[in-house]
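[audit] Reproducing an earlier prediction to check determinism. Same input, same settings, fresh worker. If the tokens differ from the archived copy the diff job will pick it up downstream; this log only records the rerun itself.
[audit] input (205 residues):
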Amino acid sequence: MGGNEIMPIIEPLPEDEIEEKGFGKILTRCEEVGAPDALFVRILARAPGYTKALHDAMHMSHAEGGVDHKLKEIIRVQLARKAEDTYFANLRSGKAMREGLTEERIEAGCGDFENDASFTPAEKWALRYAFTMYREPGKLNKEFYDEGKKHFSEAQIMELGGFIALHYGMQVFMRTLKAFPMNGPDGNSISQGESEKIYGAKVVQ
């Protein structure tokens, strides 16, 4: 990258250094899922010992487990918008899209999902869980969780809770670093300056 190139506040490691540190498996995950992309790993790699553990946890909570990945992808975008994080808000899971998730469905889940008949009661509870956790946490009481148990196992509720907490926290962190997605809408690699022009205002509450 050129000397005048706009960079995140903590600069990502160069690609050749990332390869030398043996992060190939993590970068492959980034290519397969796309949220996060390789930029996140290159920034995180400033603390190499943390990189694998954090990415493992984020990947497992998002792309694996007993809760539908498409639902978790909608939640992830909803949370990123709440965090006002341009980076994560504009990434999309290729895995979720391959499974049939659409941008329209994401918008619905980030909007008036309570009155949207296309969402099941279970999906509405999960979307409400994420929506409420950082807005009105006092509402997440025993009655709320008892309702959740009608739709999800306790293990799935733990999965959702951990996913929401971990991803929202990392989204707030990335917001502070002024980072933008590595690729444009056409999938081609772009500079941070170009990405800021494309995505800079694209965080919808």
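[audit] rerun output stored. Observation attached for the diff report: The two ends are 33 Å apart (CA to CA).
[audit] end
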